[in-house]
Structures are given as C-alpha cells and as structure tokens.
Amino acid sequence: MDRVCAVFGGSRGIGRAVARLMAQRGYRLAIVARNLQGARAVAGDLGGDHLALSCDVAKEQDVQSTFEEIEKNLGPVNFLVNAAGINRDNLLVRTSTEDMLCQLQTNLLGSMLTCKAAVKTMIKQQGGSIVNIGSVVGLKGNPGQSVYSASKGGLVGFSRALAKEVAKKKIRVNVVAPGFVHTDMTKDLKEEHLKSNIPLGRFGDPLDVAHAVLFLLESPYITGHALVVDGGLQLTM
Ligand code: NDP
C-alpha cells in the first residue's frame, strides 16, 4: 500500500522539515497550508509526486474537501501530521476573546477536524498513524501563553482519548511536544536570553523535531504518547 501523508502546516517551519524528511523516505505527501503559494513552493522543492493544497484547518468544509482532493490525487491518507499552529502570546488580562478563539480554533479544533477526517479514511484502510504537534508549554504552562498552553495541553488530552478510541482499528495517535525551535513563530524571541534555560544550550532546529515525528509515525507499538523534544527545557520549567 502507498504511504500517503497529509502534512498540515507543511509550508513552513516544523511541518516543512517533516515533509522534507518524509519525502526522502518515499512517502507521497500533501503539503497543506492556507497560503497555496507557500505549499506549492515546498511541494515543488521536494520533487516527485507530491500535492499542494490550500486549507484553513479551522474550517470543517475546507478540511473535508482537502481529504477528498488528496484521495483523488494520491490515494487515501494513512499518515497524518498536524503542524498547523499559531500563537498570540500575551498576559491573559490583555488577551482579546478573538485572540483566544483563533488560537483554540487553529491549534485545537483544527487538529480535531483533521483527525476526524483522517480517522474515517484510516478505519476503511484498517490502519493509520497520526502525530499532532503540541508544545512543552502545554505540559508545563508558561506565563504569557495561557491560551496557547491550553490549546496544546488540550491537544494532549484529545490525542490520548482518541488513541484509546481507535486503537482497535490499528490506528495510532501520538504527540510531539517541542520546546523552542527556530521557525517563523520564534523569530522575534530573544534567543540569547532564553537559551540559558535550555540544558542543551540552544534552540532546536526543525529537523530535530522532524526526526521525532517520523519516529512516532513509524513506531508500531507506541500510541497515546507525548514525546518532548526540547533540549531539556522542561527540566528547568
Ligand atoms: P510556523 O509559523 O513556521 O508555521 C506554521 C504553519 O502552519 C505554516 O505552514 C502555516 O501556513 C500553517 N498554518 C497556520 N495556521 C493555519 C491554518 N489555520 N490552517 C492551515 N494551516 C495553518 O510555525 P512552526 O513550524 O514553528 O510551528 C509548527 C507547530 O509546532 C505549531 O503547532 C506550533 O504551535 C508548534 N510549536 C512550535 C514551536 C516553536 O518553537 N517553533 C514550539 C512548540 C510547538 P499558512 O500561514 O500559510 O497557513
């Protein structure tokens, strides 16, 4: 059977690194993001038979038609990576309801919608593997990131429950929880100051996370696990 993977948030950062690694390992990929040009640029760079699609993960209709397009062009999805995510960091008292909703809708509802669509097709195929990208702050909490932390902590609870729900169908669901990683999301952070809290002394590279994602995607006896990839940051939190 073809290994077809949908990488939501595959146009930049961690998702792009996952897509590159998976392309090297022979997966057929759908690179999905809101900005179609960004997704196309990555799919084009990968060479081979990959697909680029535009989709807002927070919109159920978008997600459904994305899975239909992938099935039509590449075949049914049997691997899913949810790397689409946003942050609106601020103290809670300064966070607008709009900023709360957009973080929850993209980071949490978005992964629920893509998992729901993926699980339907994986049940028909009698198997599949999902990795959701959480965050170490979803496990530990971080001031200035209460809503973002909630969205990522919620993702862990969701993934564990879903792992139990679908295990009998031979579908596995896991989480990778990164610390600070060099991407657009962290480009405005003061690395010099923050890295003193990281035992390994540096921000992660997207490829550091991608290796962990691939490990969980392909590990046949691991499900409901949250794998922290943070250079030891959580030891100091
Ligand atoms: P980037 O900002 O580099 O990339 C985010 C990706 O998500 C882009 O491809 C973006 O494309 C896509 N995206 C954002 N919103 C949506 C949406 N509504 N629908 C579809 N796609 C969307 O972020 P990172 O690579 O850093 O982050 C990847 C994941 O890792 C996120 O979930 C993030 O929360 C998490 N994470 C990141 C950490 C870090 O230090 N970088 C640390 C811990 C967790 P487009 O804008 O075109 O839609």
Automatic annotation (TrEMBL):
Localization, UniProt: Mitochondrion matrix
Pathway listed: Lipid metabolism; fatty acid biosynthesis
Enzyme Commission no: 1.1.1.100, 1.6.5.10
Annotated SMART domains: PKS_KR
Matches recorded under InterPro entries: KR_dom, NAD(P)-bd_dom_sf, Sc_DH/Rdtase_CS, SDR_fam
GO molecular function, one term: oxidoreductase activity, acting on the CH-OH group of donors, NAD or NADP as acceptor
Record keyword Mitochondrion present: yes
Keyword Cell division: no
Domain Ketoreductase: 3-212
GO CC annotation terms, alphabetical: mitochondrial matrix
Enzyme class, UniProt record, top EC level: oxidoreductase
Keywords: Fatty acid biosynthesis, Fatty acid metabolism, Lipid biosynthesis, Lipid metabolism, Mitochondrion, NAD, NADP, Oxidoreductase
Catalytic activity: a (3R)-hydroxyacyl-[ACP] + NADP(+) = a 3-oxoacyl-[ACP] + NADPH + H(+); a quinone + NADPH + H(+) = a quinol + NADP(+)
Coiled-coil ranges per UniProt: none
Predominant cellular place of this UniProt entry's protein: mitochondrion
GO annotation, biological process: fatty acid biosynthetic process
Protein family membership: Belongs to the short-chain dehydrogenases/reductases (SDR) family.
Complexes and interactors: Homotetramer (in vitro). Heterotetramer with HSD17B8; contains two molecules each of HSD17B8 and CBR4. Does not form homotetramers when HSD17B8 is coexpressed, only heterotetramers (in vitro).
PANTHER family: 3-OXOACYL-[ACYL-CARRIER-PROTEIN] REDUCTASE, SHORT-CHAIN DEHYDROGENASES/REDUCTASES FAMILY MEMBER
Function recorded in the entry: Component of the heterotetramer complex KAR (3-ketoacyl-[acyl carrier protein] reductase or 3-ketoacyl-[ACP] reductase) that forms part of the mitochondrial fatty acid synthase (mtFAS). Beta-subunit of the KAR heterotetramer complex, responsible for the 3-ketoacyl-ACP reductase activity of the mtFAS, reduces 3-oxoacyl-[ACP] to (3R)-hydroxyacyl-[ACP] in a NADPH-dependent manner with no chain length preference, thereby participating in mitochondrial fatty acid biosynthesis.
Protein name stated in the entry: 3-oxoacyl-[acyl-carrier-protein] reductase
Organism: Sus scrofa (Pig)
